[in-house]
Structure formats: structure tokens, C-alpha cells
Amino acid sequence: MITANFIVPSLFYWNQPFKQQPLTQLYLASIVDEHFQGRQIQTKVTDLRGLNPAELHLHIAEPSELFLYSIASPDFREVFALVEILRKKFPGAKHIAGGAHVNIFPEETARVFDCVVSGSGEKSLIQLLEDFLRGDLKRSYELDPDYAHTRYPFPRRHYLPREKIVRDNLIKCAPGVLSTSTLFSHGCPFICGFCANYNRRKSVRRSNAEMAAEIEYLQANYGVTGLAMLDEICIPLIEAESRPYLETLKKYKVLWRGQSRVGIQPDVLKLAREAGCLELNLGVESVSEKVMEIVKKRIKVEDVKAMIKNCKANDIKVYINLVNGLPGEPKNIVQMTKDFIEETQPDLVNLFSLCLYPGSPIAEHPERYGIDPTTVQKDYHRMNHLVRRFKDSQAQDDAEEMVLFSYQAEGPFGPAFSREEILANYENLQEFVISRGLNK
Ligand code: B12
Ligand code: SF4
After folding, report:
1. Interval between CA 7 and ligand 1 midpoint (Å)
2. pTM score of the predicted model
3. What is the mean pLDDT of residues 6-15?
4. Which CATH number fits domain 2-149: 3.20.20.140, 3.40.50.2300, 2.60.40.2380, 1.10.10.10?
5. Per the CB 3.0–4.6 Å rule, which of 97, 115, 171, 274 could disulfide with 69?
């Protein structure tokens, strides 16, 4: 019997690393267990969240034949260092990686790991394990051209202790509701310029029956009454899909939150509320229409206002995500943003800082967005759009970790802010958001 050990990185860049559950690792382990049925391969998920990145190896005491990593770009350096240490500690173990960073940099990552998986990983995972058992592990796999998760089991949660699965603070407006993260769909058909939606895949949803089975499992095993949905788009954009989906959720009487595109019709929002929706996060990004066009957000400021109003009318808390430092911001962007917030009165404002994540159009072609390519810092581990990661939410942000690039003074969209001005805008807006109590 060999052990396939799925490693969850520390998430050192989060001030609440346990907030969401590591569904990818749970999902991949579930696939292995369903396929091998406990024969030949046993699975394990090692949760390193919240631990000191320099000491992760100390928390891996037992050898495993296979260590498997799912890597987003900010994790790369940490995982790289861990692999180096584990190679010495457990010679002979193989290190296998997949995930966003591997998809974007297959060659770079192939130099670090014994094996890398690009594209959808389900089929590749089974194949590589079978190859390993035969002593024929290949250096890379890319077997699923299409995204295939609906043919595989939903993530089983028993790999982690109960307290790491169920939380009572995932739905901000309903503290105490026992909740867990879910992901019923994958993919987003849009191509926003700042987003590392590198696979540009259409949204693929599990069937409503599969979603129901997962909710039943969570209710029966964990007493869950709340869901924190991690889908890029938590309410399907096509009404013929959204109605049966929401009707299914309604049956289970769960409370939930998620991220939504702007433009969901009022009657669908009403149904969403009846189906338990308490909070929606809207990717607004900028209150400047010019900026929205440059980053191809494909929404209008008026649509955002209407969506906020409709959410409020249906008693759904509405949280807006704004990105400071986007290309083409007008000189008065700070005042415009304040005016927008005063006018629309969202329940919470998440103020992010533009981050050039590998895989996003803006990172691939910074010059097209007026960024001076020579100024772009490629320290993946410093990339974090969430900003308030090392300090509590009332504290001053760590300016050095923000804005790892500079615009050309005169770019394709006219005069641009300097890095210092972007930082000042951020601080100004953040103070405003905090003073209104909109950051909690
Ligand atoms: C849900 C989600 C999250 C969740 C859960 C993540 C988790 N580990 O479960 C939360 C909210 C925690 C999260 C956090 C972050 N996320 Co996120 N997240 C997503 C989202 C929307 C879906 C990812 C997902 O869970 N899919 C389900 C899994 C099963 O599918 P998958 O990721 O596509 O993986 C498949 C293959 O890649 C492969 N595979 C993946 N890993 C492995 C490992 C092995 C061993 C094998 C064999 C195969 C394999 O098999 C999978 C099945 O086909 C994506 C958007 C997207 N387009 O992918 C962003 C995305 C992956 N996130 C992103 C980022 C930036 C982050 C953060 C760094 C943000 C931050 N600064 O805090 C952190 C990183 C946390 C982490 N290390 O996981 C970026 C990555 C960009 C980049 N260059 O790295 C994405 C692409 C969003 C975006 N459009 O910009 N995220
Ligand atoms: S920002 Fe949201 S809507 Fe735009 S591509 Fe990314 S996930 Fe899709």
C-alpha cells in the first residue's frame, strides 16, 4: 500500500487561513479513493494552513511515497522550498503538482517536480497513479482537454478534522450559522483583463441532483446549515438554469452566500433570497465606465447600481469588490468611488489592490494596459490582491506589498497615476471605507 499525501499550503498571505476549506485537495483525494477503493493506494490530506512557512516540513513527520500539491502562484516559492527539504527527508518520494501556476508555467514547474499535470486533472491523476504503481511515472500529463468534474465525486470532507470543515463565521451577516465551503460549478466565460481566468472555460455546473446529494451529505455528517459558495458565478446567468438550481437549494433550507455577476434579474434575486441567499459579492472592480471598458468587465455602472438596489430590495446583503489601481483610472477616481458608495450604500466594500497574477491578460501584456514592463516585479509570493493580510483590518496596510508595477506617465489611456499616487488613493479610500464601517 502506498500513500498519496495531498498537501495544503500555509496560505501565509491570508490573515484568516482557515476561512475557506481546501476543496481542491479534498476533491482530488476523493477521486483517488473512489477509483482505487482503498486498494494499493491510501490517501491523506495534510493541512499546513496557518503554520510558519519556514517550518512546514516539521509537520510532515511520516514518509509518503507521493506528495501532491495544487499551486496558485503565491504558493510557488513556499512549495518549492518544502519540496527541497522533503527530498532530503524522504529520499525516493515523488513530488507531483497541478493547479493554476502549473498550467500557466508548465516548463518552469516541471523543473521542480517529478511530475506535473496540466489542464483538468481528474483523468491524469488516475493515470499517473496507475503509471506509478507500474513503475512508469511520466514527467507530465495532460489528458483531459475538457473540464470534467461533473463525472467525478464531490469532495468528501472526512480527510480533515471536523473543526477544519465546519465554521460558524463564513456568512458575515449570520454569525453562528454552521457553514462550509462548496463549489458546485467551475469556470467563467468572461475575460476580464486583470483576472487569471487562464483557461477561459465556460461555466460547467454539477447537476442539481449532484448538488442535492452533496448538501444532504453535509447536513447528515456535519449538521451544516450554511454554505459559503466559492464558485466564480454562484447564480447561473441563464434563467432556464438558475430557476431549477435555486428551487433545489430552496428545498434544503440552507442559508448561503456567494459571488455573483452583476445583471441578475430582480425576480431571480427574489427567488435566490427565498432559496436562502443572504449575501452576494459583486465583482464591480471600478466605478469608472472607462476603466470597466478597458478591463473588459462587460457591465455598466448603471447595471451595478440597479443590482445593488435589487439585492437590497430583496433583503440580500450586497458586498462590492473594488480594485484600486486599474488602468485608465481618471484623476478623480477616489471622489467618484466615494460618491458611488454614498449613493448606492452597499453593505460592505472589499477594496483590493491590482495584482498582476500570472495568467491574466494584464500580466501577459502589461504594455497594452499602459504598464511599464520593466517595472513589473515577478515575485509571485508577494502577489496578493487582498492587501490586509499581515495585520488586522483596522491597521495600516503594508504598502511595500502593494502595487508591484508602475504605469507609464502617459499611457494609451492618457495620463496615469504614479505608484505613490495609487498607494495614496488606496489609503484614502480605505480610510473612507473604514470610517463608514464598511470593511467588516
Ligand atoms: C475556488 C477558488 C479558490 C478557493 C479555494 C481554493 C482551493 N484550494 O480549494 C479559495 C477562495 C480558498 C481560493 C484562494 C486563492 N485563490 Co483561488 N480560485 C478559486 C477558483 C474560483 C476555482 C478553483 C478550484 O477550486 N477549482 C476546483 C479544482 C478542482 O479545479 P482546478 O483548480 O481547475 O484544478 C484542476 C486542475 O488544475 C488539476 N489540478 C489542480 N491541482 C492539482 C494537483 C494535482 C496533484 C493534480 C494531479 C491535479 C491538479 O485538477 C483539477 C481538476 O481538474 C479559481 C478560478 C479558476 N479559474 O480556476 C481561482 C484561482 C485558482 N485562484 C486564484 C488565486 C490568485 C487565489 C489566491 C492566491 C488568492 C489570494 N491571493 O488569496 C488564493 C490561493 C489559495 C490556494 N493556495 O488555494 C487564481 C490563480 C491565479 C494564479 N496565477 O495563481 C484563480 C485562477 C482565480 C483567477 N481567475 O484569478 N481560490
Ligand atoms: S473577474 Fe470574475 S467575471 Fe471576470 S473573468 Fe474573472 S471570474 Fe470571470
Report:
1. 14
2. 0.95
3. 91
4. 3.40.50.2300
5. 97
